[in-house]
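Hi team,

As requested, here is the filled-out complex form for the glutamine run. I kept the field names the same as last time so the parser does not choke. Let me know if anything looks off before we queue the next batch.

— J.
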Amino acid sequence: MTKSSVLGYPRIGEDREWKKALEAFWSGKLEEAEFQARLQEIRLNHLRKQQEKGIDLIPVNDFSYYDHILDTAAMFGIIPKRFSYEGGAVPLSVYYGVARGTKGAAASEMTKWFNTNYHYIVPELTDASPVLTENKPLAAYREAKEKLGIEGKPVIVGPLTFLKLSKGYSASETDTWLERLVPLYVQVLQELAEEGVQWVQIDEPILVTKLSQDDLQRLTKIYETIAAAVPSLNIMLQTYFESVENYTDIVKLPVKGIGLDFVHGYKGNLVAIKTLGFPADKVLGAGVIDGRGIWKASLREKLELLTALTKLVTPDRLIVQSSCSLLHVPVTTARETKLTSELKNALAFADEKLGELVLLTKALASSSESDIDEIIKSEAAIQALQQSEERNRVNIQQAVAALNNQQPERSHPFAERHQAQQAKWQLPIFPTTTIGSFPQSAEVRKARQSWRKGEWNNEQYAQYIRDQIDTWVDLQEEIGLDVLVHGEFERTDMVEFFGEKLAGFAFTQNGWVQSYGSRCVKPPVIFGDVAFTGEMTVEETKYAQSKTSRPVKGMLTGPITIMNWSFVRDDIPREQIAYQLAYALRQEVEALEQAGIGMIQVDEPAVREGLPLKEEEQADYLAWAVKAFRITTCTVHETTQIHTHMCYCEFHDMIDSIEAMDADVISIETSRSHGELIHSFELNTYKLGIGLGVYDIHSPRVPSVEEMTGMIERALRVLDARLFWINPDCGLKTRGLEETVASLRNMVEATKIARENHAATV
Ligand code: GLN
Ligand code: ZN
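And here is what came back:
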């Protein structure tokens, strides 16, 4: 009969015990043996939960000591030379060295796992000679069987995806690399087959991206080789995060099952399977429960979908699955005690999703009365939230609907604004500024805690913040910066701060998800219509401005960044959520302007992160992201200068969209992709104000004047000197006081030199 399965379970534990164990081990507080024991306990506990809930095919080897891509590299002995690894099973010290760096060797690069907020360690293939160092999936399978009697489903990242995500080889070496890797995969799989493993899940999420004809042929060859070597093993070729490209080729591959995402790839995959059919001899892994969203599924709709699928594949060839690994959602709603019941009842984190999967699987065969009760209850919970006041703010909905039909535009084109702003501010050439935050010392964090705990009253805390502002306004003047900031001392996090002040947001107590390694984040939940409820940043900004005659930039987080770093409701399109946020933030922009703040920065570091995987959908996303930014910023006077800031990503391929945002000035991170970003300005002329970060803020090192002069001169070769600003790469929140002041002094020094060198030409 139909079976249930998940593609992976969160590693971090209900109480983030995984994170705590890792960090204790790193800091030497936990011996390796004790650490191993603790991790095993966590791992078994997760398996036990799935077993108790009644999941039929439970994944093993989805657990990790840090990251599953790093695990795969380590399994094949692919360790960069600088870590002096000597072969055999990779010791933990080496494994964590690659992930986090050691005294003598920089960590491997880390990058975004497809379009999620999870980051993996990029394997470096340069000089590597892969061998099988240990069969990790086999060990995981044995453990589950021996300890819990579970017939586990080992999960492995597939060869094509692994290779595509790796670096340190050229395109012409692709086949050579596959010839090295595939035999190792075969070896792993043969050992699994010998052990009596039934199902193996091979993850090939790369199949949702566009592949070349060559890659498609490689794909076929890989799976033919594997099928020939282990004909008895049931392989579930698993895809996720989108619909597959090349459906016809993929379903022809010689594997037992094909796993498709019917949530994030719903449309494409459903059309494909309905029009092109599904091979009668294969099993369909139907990913119907959202592995990335936090909401309860409409079980009625899911049951309809599954029933429709049973017209195309027989029920015994259907597996009811999560759309992707549950790694991307928090563990359980059970520990949330502060959410309204309306909200809490509509949420489903990993454990609740297990329940949904089991229920759907049972109900598909035949619904018992209690199943029907469950389904009705769950629908009612979704309905209740749907009908809540928060989701029905008619005034917001109307205001945003009215925006839909407008092209948000500043009253004057940039050239005129630029003149008016110059006349008003009289800034020197190459104005200097910073990105917003100044060091959040232990003292600042302590002050906030005292206030949160109630040991300090509001006034005490406000006074403390004002003192910080005083100190930093003086410092900025003394350093000689032209455009000042208040320093963001009142903010812990640039999204949370605004979420706490806007309506439509909720905060969980325990909704943590892994971002990278032991780092977990607790994204806000946008569950209702977003509304402005009062000024959020005016007081501090106004205060800072009252202390100086130089302009102080107001500082807001942009709509797209707030959205991309939150869990969002799934009953309205993301585009509409972005416009609601934009509409709310616009009111803050207007309030700042009213209060006499003449420069306002709206940060959008996360714009690029939301880019859809499908190329054909990217233009549309960028268009509405740009529109949301413009809605936020378009109503101010021509003399009010709008700034924006971007970082974390490479932006060289989206300069057009950045320009379309029409910000008077952008400050953009440059150090991570130097060459490429500057090169892209050789190809496009950028016509608005721009500051390319002249130093990397991710390290405590104080850059020299010469280094920054070099950066400035390089940028000036391709950018208009009259529009050029000088600033660091990003906010200085994580830096120390001394290095910050020293670096900024050098930056101002480098600016003076640049002004002398270029005075004649501007
Ligand atoms: N204004 C923010 C700061 O300086 C920007 C942070 C960011 O870009 N991530 O901290
Ligand atoms: Zn930044």
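Two things worth flagging: The chain has two domains: 3-297+309-328, 415-761. The mean pLDDT is 96.

Thanks,
J.
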